[in-house]
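Provenance

Sequences were taken from public entries as deposited. Structures were produced by running a predictor on each sequence independently, with no templates supplied. The record for Transketolase from Streptomyces ureilyticus is shown for reference.
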Amino acid sequence: MTKTAERRYTYEDLSGLLSLMSGDEKHGPAATSTLDALWVLYDRVLRVTPGRVDDPERDRFLLSKGHGPMAYYAVLAAKGFVPVEWLPAFGSYDSPLGHHPDRVLVPGAEIGSGSLGHGLPIAVGTALGLRAQGLHEPAVWVLVGDAELDEGSNHEAIAYAGPAGLDRLHTVVIDNSSASYARPGGIAARFEAAGWSVESVDGRDHEALYAAFTAPHPGRPRVVVAQVEPKSA
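Predicted structure for Transketolase:
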């Protein structure tokens, strides 16, 4: 058992864990925009623990917004997936905690990520694969940034998942107003038009996030648009 797992960390501890990671390429705003959503998911929603990372019945969490992984690493450390002692070496040559997460090196990471636009299509494939195996309990969660939705691969994933009725698929969009191409009605309307269950919430409000994450959505995939302060703010 790691030292991380021996101590029970709280949300208030995350700022201290984040402060252990430094460097010129840490993408601080990209990381901190995801912190609250990640914490609520790992603390109260996801059915996965360090001892269940290979359990077929586990929930899957895919970090698509992988170019700013500090908050992800901090939450994984707080929950015992990785040792806290790894954090200060973040981004160094021989550290498993790279500037983009590597699923081979980071315990609990389901995918290697950082190239924008890949996470949601992979999540759709994961949900389809679980359905084909008769595994109907595991939920698939993917966290994306609003700018990623400019990528065509995400358009295809959104358009497919609704009619396919992938109700074990859940997407969290971190909206920090960094997308280049606005769409009529905004992000929520785009998903709603494709048949998704949709809700927009304050991305810093833990109770609002939890309620949105756990709301029923029979027969439809679910998207929660978590609105946070603009990236340039």
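The two ends are 41 Å apart (CA to CA).
Residues 3-227 form a domain with the Rossmann fold fold (CATH 3.40.50.970).
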